[in-house]
Amino acid sequence: MGESTKGEELKKELFNIKKTGWLEVKEDQMEKIQKFADEYMYFLNVGKTEREVVENTTKILIENGFKNVIEVENLNPGDKVYYVNREKSIYIAVIGKEKLENGLNIVGAHVDSPRLDLKPNPLYEDGGFALLKTHYYGGIKKYQWTTIPLAIHGVIVKSNGEKIKINIGEEESDPVFTITDLLPHLAQEQMEKKLKDGIEGEALNVLVGSIPFDEKTSESVKLNILNILNEKYGIKEVDFLSSELEIVPAFKARTLGFDRSMVAAYGQDDKICAYTSLRAILDVQNPQKTAVCILSDKEEIGSMGNTGMESHVFDNFIAELLNKTGENRPNLLEKVFCNSKMLSADVDAGFDPIYASASEHNNAAFLGRGIGLNKYTGARGKSGASDANAEYVAEIRKLFEENDIRYQLSELGKVDLGGGGTIAYILANKGIDVIDCGVPVLSMHAPYEVTSKYDLYMAYRGYNAFLK
Ligand code: MN
Ligand code: MN
User: Fold this and answer.
1) Helix, strand or coil, per DSSP, at residue 249
2) Are 208 and 179 in contact (CB under 8 A)?
C-alpha cells in the first residue's frame, strides 16, 4: 500500500467518516454480541405484548435483587426498586449516592407494539366459518397482516374479577390463526386499488374455526367455538366485553443472514430498546446519580391513558423515591426533573437500499453503525418535535466517545415524506434534558422487523454507560 497523501490525512482528521462497526469487532466481542442477541431473542419470544413484557421483566428484576417500591420502607444509596403500573408499564430505579434533587439519569422505552386488537364483540359466523373482528392498534400497513400465522395473547377478565390469561399459537402443538386474502386470479379490482385501500380495516378478520356444533342450531360454527372456549377457559361470549386480546404474529425471533448479523422478529419497536435498557440498569451498581428505567405503554397510539407516558403515575413513582429516601419537601419533584437527563430509547428508521429514495443519505441511520441519536423528531417543519439542545447532544457525544460506543446522528427520513415522535417530548416538557437514542430498524411496524446485532449490543453498552 502506498503512503497516504496530505489530503487523505487531513480528510481523516476533519471528516465525520461513517462506516460499519462490524469491521472493528474482535473475536471475543463477536461472541458477546451473539450471546446477547440470543438472550434478546428469548426475551422477544416470551413477551409479545406489554403485559407479557412487564410480567417477564418483573421476574427478571426480582431475580436480580430488585424490590417492589411499595414493600420498601426506606431507601438508601444502592437500593434497587421497581413499580408496576397496572401490569402494562413498569418504572425501575437504582438509588444513587447523590441526592435525587441533583437529578436522575433516565432511560425510557416502550413495550407496546403495533398489532390487531380484538373488538369488544369480536366473534361472528359467516359462510360456514367463525371469525374474529379486529381493530388495529398503532400505525400498520394492513396488507402485511394477511396470510401470516397469528397468535392470540391477552387477558379476559370476568365480571367477578377472575382474570384468564390467553396465549395460543406459540407452541408447536397449538393451532394458529390467520387473515385470508383474495386469490390473484380474482383480484383484478383489488389490485387496481391504492396500497392503503387494498385491505380495509374491516377486512382484518381472523379465521378461527369451521366445524358446526350441530345441524339444527343457527350460527352453529360460532356456537361450537364458544363451547370450546367455555370448556377451556370457562368464558361466555359476554366475557369478551371485558377482555384485552391482541392478535400478534406467531413467528419466533430468528437470526437473519448467512453471516448471522441481524435479528428478524415481531415487536422490535420498541422491545429492542426496552430489553437493552433493562439489561443496562441490571448492570448498574451504586451509581453516582439515581438511575431510572421506564418501560411505558401506549406509545404507539399517542402515550395517553394511565399506563401511557402522559400519565402522572411516573411522577408518583419519583415522588415515592423522594419520600422513601427522606429527601422530600414541597415542590422538590419539579426540581428533580429540571436537573435530570434522559435517553428516550426508541427505534429509528434504518436506511433500506430497496427504498433508498425515502431517506436522505447524509442523514439516514444505517444498520451496523451503532446506536442512533435523533436530535429532533417531528414532521414537516419539525412540527411536534422534541429537540435536544446542542449542549446536551455534546454531553452525550462525549459520554459515548469516552466509552468507545459507536453512535450516529440521523433523521427519520426525507423531510417532506412524513415523520414521527416518541415519548421524548413528554419528559422534555417536565424540564428534563432528553435526546432520542435507539436502534435503527428495517420494516418498522411490520409483523417482521429487522435490526443489526451490532446496534443491539451498542445500545446496551450506551444505555449502561449513561446510567452508570
Ligand atoms: Mn417506538
Ligand atoms: Mn413505533
Assistant:
1) strand
2) no
CA–centroid distance, 36 to ligand 2, in Å, is 23
**Tens of each residue's pLDDT in the chain, 468 residues:** 567 899 999 999 999 989 999 999 999 999 999 999 999 999 999 999 999 999 999 999 999 999 999 999 999 999 999 999 999 999 999 999 999 999 999 999 999 999 999 999 999 999 999 999 999 999 999 999 999 999 999 999 999 999 999 999 999 999 999 999 999 999 999 999 999 999 999 999 999 999 999 999 999 999 999 999 999 999 999 999 999 999 999 999 999 999 999 999 999 999 999 999 999 999 999 999 999 999 999 999 999 999 999 999 999 999 999 999 999 999 999 999 999 999 999 999 999 999 999 999 999 999 999 999 999 988 889 998 999 999 999 999 999 999 999 999 999 889 988 888 899 999 999 999 999 999 999 999 999 999 999 999 999 999 999 999
Q: Which residues contact 60 (CB under 8 A, 6 or more apart)?
A: 278, 282
Write down the pTM of the prediction: 0.97
Do 179 and 281 meet the contact criterion of CB atoms below 8 Å apart? no
Counting ligands in written order, the one closest to the CA of 436 is: 1
* Distance between Cα 271 and ligand 2 center (Å): 10
d(CA 348, CA 221): 44
Inter-axis angle of helices 453-467 and 268-282, to 10 degrees? 40
Helix/strand/coil for 200: coil
Distance 269 CA to ligand 2 centre (A): 5
Residue 189 CA to ligand 1 centre (angstroms):
35
Domains of the chain (ranges; CATH) run 16-113+266-467 (3.40.630.10), 115-249 (2.30.250.10)
Contacts of 4-12 with C-beta under 8 Å, sequence gap 24+, read: none
Cβ pair 325, 76 in contact under 8 A? yes
How close is the Cα of 114 to the center of ligand 1, in Å? 9
How far is ligand 2, taken at its centre, from the CA of residue 195, in Å? 20
